[in-house]
Specification:
- The protein is mainly α and 203 residues long.
- The relative contact order is 0.10.
- It folds into 2 domains: 119 residues, Orthogonal Bundle (Rna Polymerase Sigma Factor, Chain: A), CATH 1.10.1740; 83 residues, Orthogonal Bundle (Arc Repressor Mutant, subunit A).
- Helix 3 crosses helix 5, helix 5 crosses helix 10 and helix 10 packs across helix 11.
Amino acid sequence: MEYNRAISAVASSRAAAAPSTSDETLLGLIAKGDRNAVRLLFVRHNLRIYRFILRIVGNETAAEDLVNEVFIEVWRSAHRFESRSQVTTWILGIARFKALTALRRRSSEGLDDDFAESIEDSADNPEVMVQKADRSAVLQACLKQLSNAHRQVIDLIYYHEQSIEEVARITGIPENTVKTRAFHARKRLAELIEARGIESMSL
């Protein structure tokens, strides 16, 4: 993806010069109007936020726009961060809200032709799918077939390494509900993966 390559280049170019400042310290500086701090926080976390949003909205251009909106909101709301969760948990919560709002807005407006064309056809023959993609790509295809609620939980737990408690904070649902969704999501994933001719695959 162009976005991934561009951001990776920016991150690499600044990595050596970036101080090992904690996210909490950066957020405190952002609250005081430090633009360099928000740039560093962006470089540090934007790619994971982009991937998280992309799995929700399913459109690269929309995801890129929403990442920018997320960090604008971080800039505006840094003074409201109360350290009751990790900074990444807080930012992912903002990202989830922005992504779901965009989805609701898009569903009320109807899909445009460009977006409809960008949605991958998941009706490929299982053999064709395995032949043209590696195991990781098969997993991604299976993830897309989960419900949005189940996909978000799996994404946060396994790809963003959030705890059950943190996922509950981000999604605004009880911890027991997070556990239940994670259980059913893993079970459904196993079924989808097996249907593609792969006996087992770890997340």
